[in-house]
């Protein structure tokens, strides 16, 4: 992986990507600060969410900021009224009885019901929303669905990435092995989703993970957000995770650890170049 990404053998590479950009304004502001002032290096945009317009304005003002598309078929909770970008009559298998996207707790129902042609219709609508805004993404990944949740959804996403000249995030071993066999750079070690870390002692755990980071390519999917009243109202369960991520990503300790440990931080633009110019 190091050679594919233009780094010497033995280099410790860490891809730090901020997920959920576009969920709401307090997430958007934290994501931008985590990249501009902190150690995050790219982000993933959720186009069906209420903060997506604000997020795209921030991206237009910052053409240098690498971002991908966080393909979204799932809403986090019943309180989030996220519908599809495609006309509802064209993607009925992706909707619950209220006509919205399925909640995260009902992912098995979604995966059992979702028609691949309707998944493609919705994914294309989400990609087109970005390209029609004049923005150029780096990669595709998924919200709440590791490797798309189904093999055929992963294959569809790979096809769309090839069409648009993008990289794809791969979490799980079957997909990673397939991509390695094709000579494409993918994460080599355990994938870190920050929602799976305990809140207690999180900063210390992040510091330990940096000190013990192995050589090769690792990836952290982080979820920065502010802890203000807007965040608490919009995301009563998730905001503590997001605030603790933001606090570490923008801390002097994080930067000092990277420097002391000689860790090279990457965003998805580095992977996109390797995927599209092998």
Automatic annotation (TrEMBL):
It comes from Nonomuraea rosea. It holds the Pfam family YdjC. Gene3D superfamilies: Glycoside hydrolase/deacetylase (3.20.20.370). Keywords: Carbohydrate metabolism, Hydrolase, Magnesium, Metal-binding. SUPFAM superfamilies: Glycoside hydrolase/deacetylase (SSF88713). InterPro entries: Glyco_hydro/deAcase_b/a-brl, YdjC-like. Its cofactor is Mg(2+). This is Carbohydrate deacetylase. It comes from the Bacteria.
